[in-house]
Amino acid sequence: MSADVRCAARRLRAIMIAAAFLTGAAGCATARKGAPPRPSQETAAGMLEIVLRPVRDAAGVVSAIDVDAVLRGALQPGAEALVLDTPVVYAGVYGIADRVEDLRASDAKGAISFAAADEEPHPGGFPHYRRWTAQRAVTFPVRIRYRSRVQPAGGPGGPPFGIRPSAGGVSGAGSGFLVLPENVEVAKSRVRWDLSGFEKNASAATTFGEGVFILEGPADGLRQGWYMAGPIERYPDKGDVGGFSAHWLGAFPFDARAEMAWAGEAYDYLAKFFRYLDPAPRYRVFMRLVETPPYGGGTALGDSFMLSRGPARPEEIGAEGPRDVFFHEMIHRWVGGIEGPQGVTSWFSEGLTTYYAALLPMRGGFESVDKYGERINALARAYYVNPARNWTAHEIVEVGFRDGTIRHRPYQLGALYFADLDARIRAASSGARTLHDFMHEIFVRRETEEGFVFDHAAWKALVEAEIGDGAAAAFERIVLSGETIIPVSNAFGPCFERRETRFETEDRGEIAGYEWRRVETIPDSICRNY
What we know:
This protein is of the alpha+beta class and 530 residues long. 26% of the residues lie in helices and 27% in strands.
């Protein structure tokens, strides 16, 4: 999945990343213990410099990350006092701000005191923040130090944003532990690691680079990446293969190296299929095995994703990895998002990704046509039996991360909506255009066109212009208001046709719905190239 985050309504923006490596340190910087971040050779104006030091307990398990930062720059216009913030809750991960200990800040005048206040919580577990407001005027640079404890075992399931110990190391998202300036003009951030708390052969990697990295843009961008440190294994052993690499902690039931080689081939295929990013962005996969719940699952951030899972079950030993998850999470890089209220836009970011994640493994020759049929029928069943099938998008957001079945309704609905839209675009254009032609134009405009606002109003105008036939009104009724969707018979191509069926459920009896059966007279080659 791709998380709906605090800034979900922003347009996608390109983030330029420059990795700075120290020689002789296996790609990772080592700072003197207790030393503040050294001044960068880059301009000191608008710079946040951070040292991250994982802390292990007596048993060798990482219990926290110590953060030591120096903030240079100036308050944003109109700001009266320095404000720092971190999530209290972030996409179902609770207590992040409560795990921040010994937060201290100082400037040339000495210690800075803060007053803390929390935003109103969101009932669906979506992000809300704690803000620390300085009680006096500050002078830059400001030094900020604190310890962020790891997310404890237990608690609700959800995306793996929290920092968790794993196989002697630690990993998680920046949103799971970083306290950042909210109202300071930061042009770039420089992050390095102090790995002195580990044994030999420890390394560190992030979405933004390995070892030391520089992230261009506002400091909040540091939250939108994965962080991993410890006895990391990687594919390939050095560098990347076609811009792809992977990093993991723990022993998985599948052959991690072989599965990551497969994922690299899938990434190359996706780059060629979507083609609007050329060359394809540098991409990193992160995987961790945690011993206690919540285990996490797969979640994409920027040019990367994290697979977080629990101990292997006996039947998993020696099996292939979760390749459907690999495909789904990598597809997020190209699908991106649409602007709109937090959580309401999942029909697009998750629905279109789910549609492509069913279709493209078959189109690319990674899976059989019959497997594609299994995937689309699993989607159809999940949608028609979902107890929230006819809920509005806003009602689903109110439940949010408290109920996984309800939260995934937009994934299923979105996938069926886009399959139906593909068939309607083909019909309206007499076969000259497809959904992918339509989406490719939008992707290119979103990436390159200054001033292009891609929100629900834009979507309705675009889809109405493409197929007419009340398409905008249908979007409102089905996607936003919860009317049941019945895709046309050839929504999944000529190789499958719609049939009425009844689905057995454990607690609600039989539920009427639809399935798609294979048309045996049509060869696989037509299915793959339709």
